[in-house]
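tool=predict chain=A
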Amino acid sequence: MTHWIDNAIFWHIYPLGFVGAEQRAHAGIRHRLNHIVDWLDYAVALGASGLLLGPIFTSSTHGYDTIDHFRIDPRLGDDYDFDQLIMEARRRGLKVILDGVFNHVGRDFPLFRAAIENGTASQEASWFRLLGGKDETGGPAYATFEGHHALVALNHDSSDVTSYVTNVMNHWLDRGASGWRLDAAYAVSRPFWKTVLTDVRQRHPHAYIFGEVIHGDYNGFVTATRVDAVTQYELWKAIWSAINDCNLFELQWALERHNGFLERFVPLTFVGNHDVTRLASRLTDEQHIAHALAILMTVGGTPAIYAGDEQAFRGVKENRVGGDDAIRPAFPARPEELAPFGWPIYRLHQQLIGVRRRHPWLVRAKSRKIHLTARQAVWAMEANNQTILVALNLRDGDAILPAPGAKNVLAGTAAAITIELDRSTSIRLPGYGWAVLSTEEQ
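tool=predict ok
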């Protein structure tokens, strides 16, 4: 039986930004999760089959400084609002994946406040790594996440922490979530994840759980931790970098690496997320959005579209306080209020997501190079004895490229398919053109 994740395409939302929440916690509850409900039909029309949500639990500021993993952030709503979101998503066939911030907590996490008050010998202190002495602020020194004073690292050798994380994950899966993204998974010991996920999977065997891993040994991490997948940052970087530099050899190298990962697991693939500069701002020419998306939607993986990228939203991530604000904006009350110039990119997404959904075997498709120069390439995407072709032309002039076996244009700008007397097949792409081609008669 096919696992539901094999057909998944996620629409990725950063909820606190999406609903226009205040940047800091406040008294009282604001019922804003229904704002996401108002966009579910838009996500379905896009072609998504799931929502990948950023943090929704009580925090002090941006969601990654958690105070209470068992409570919906009051800036978003309460348990009733969560239940309504799950119900409305299910009614439309959408799965919901939650963001689990389990490497660290915020300074206002009650047990951390108790640990600071009661000292390093206290039971509460065993949840953290208090270092003794003072930090630069004059307070007790403690381990943090990558030097961020507001993000207190948990002690993953503590059985209490293990039980807590297991209970949190099971609690929200019991409440209707279908899986978890494990934030900063690379910063947590692999034995910890293996212990937690072994317990969680006993209760929720069909949950989809993937880890945020930026670089390193992807295969080794998956094997050691029991996650289903990791974030494919190598491919993300290669797509925009190769296109900007007109160096498709870089992308070919990443695709070969990607083929190796597909031997072991199906990566979570993307060309944008809540932590990086938006694709429309990253690319030097917006004409190349189609090139990037054509790769994402035909290569093996579980694709995720970051909300707004399908409308060519712009936004540059900056390394400063508030540097994520531009890439995490509020969305209007309803899709009809979006600016008109983004809808052609939305329709491009619909077209390519449609190709993906009509060829579900692409989830495990490996790429095979057919033609490659710095500015032009043709790949065969293959799995289960099935093939489609993907052709890119980054030059400003027409290109005639080999397309062995091509029968029909599924998407793109191919002007013609030509079959020569020797039965070789080629396509003509205009400048900055692209095409996804079927090798089967329609």
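The mean pLDDT is 96. The CA atoms of residues 88 and 188 lie 34 Å apart.
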